[in-house]
Amino acid sequence: MTDKPMVLIIEDDKAISNFIRVALTARDYTCIEAATGQQGLLMLTAQHPDIVLLDLGLPDIDGTKILREIRSFSEVPVIVVTARGQENEKAQTLDNGADDYLCKPFSMVELLARIRVALRHAQQRKSSVVEPYYEVGGLYIDFGKRKLTLDGHDVHLTPNEYKIVSLMAHNAGKVLTHAFLARELWGVALEKDINSLRVFMTGIRHKLENNPSQPRYIKTEVGVGYRLVDE
């Protein structure tokens, strides 16, 4: 990744594309823009951007098909930025390989945070570096010792609770769908056992959150999954 990461914006709404480009350029990103899916794919293969912002409602090819095409040959981070907000479509898009999903209208602060997280994860994958710990706020996880502390105090987690938190910490900042979490924890046969996952998540939140109804660390994407904060 260069000093000025290159962002490919695949968006047919010129006003939105310009807004994103101006905001990112002011923060030392290089931006290239495509108004159609076909143009976006061509620019991706020719320019090799560091990250892609992908709209789903493109005039020539649906964004979900673009995402599948990208994932057939590239691991470039893809953040879907779209007006479509249906929960099932959001979950399916993440399961199809999107690194993140942001609904319009969105704040630039949130988009910038999502971009930073996606780029950081991509850099870690390229260098094959796995962080030995996770730390944000008062929450600290030592993966080698399988130890979790909150504000300096040890927190006891059951084996399944630790497995969930560890999986989320290794993907911090990224929305993990219910199906993905269940599949990684218990296998394909139980990937639809969302109720058990929710029970475990409730227990985890009672141990980690001062106010489980307003969580600081584990955020819920309603109808989609969960995200462990990264910043």
Q: Kindly report the CATH topology of the largest domain.
A: Rossmann fold
Spans of at least 5 consecutive residues whose pLDDT stays below 50 are: none
> How far is it from the N-terminal to the C-terminal residue, by CA?
21 Å
Total beta strand runs: 12
What's the architecture of the largest domain in CATH terms?
A: 3-Layer(aba) Sandwich
Multimerization status: single chain
Helix/strand structural class: alpha/beta
- Beta-strand percent range: 15-25%
Taken in chain order, the helices and strands follow as EHEHEHEHEHEEEEHEHHEE
- Strand order in space, largest sheet: 2-1-3-4-5
Helical stretch tally: 8
What is the overall shape?
globular
> Which CATH class of the largest domain applies here?
Alpha Beta
**Count of domains:** 2
Overall description:
The chain folds into 2 domains: 6-127, Rossmann fold (3-Layer(aba) Sandwich); 133-228, Winged helix-like DNA-binding domain superfamily/Winged helix DNA-binding domain (Arc Repressor Mutant, subunit A). Helices cover 42% and strands 20% of the residues. The protein has 8 helices and 12 strands. It has helices at 14-25, 37-47, 63-71, 87-95, 108-127, 159-170, 178-186, 194-208; strands at residues 6-10, 30-34, 51-54, 78-82, 100-103, 133-136, 139-142, 147-150, 153-154, 176-177, 218-221, 225-228. The strands form 3 sheets. It has a 5-stranded parallel β-sheet with strand order 2-1-3-4-5, sandwiched between helices. A 4-stranded antiparallel β-sheet has the order 6-7-8-9, covered by helices on one side. A 3-stranded antiparallel β-sheet has the order 10-12-11. Strand 3 (51-54), helix 3 and strand 4 (78-82) form a beta-alpha-beta unit. Helix 6 (159-170) packs across helix 8.
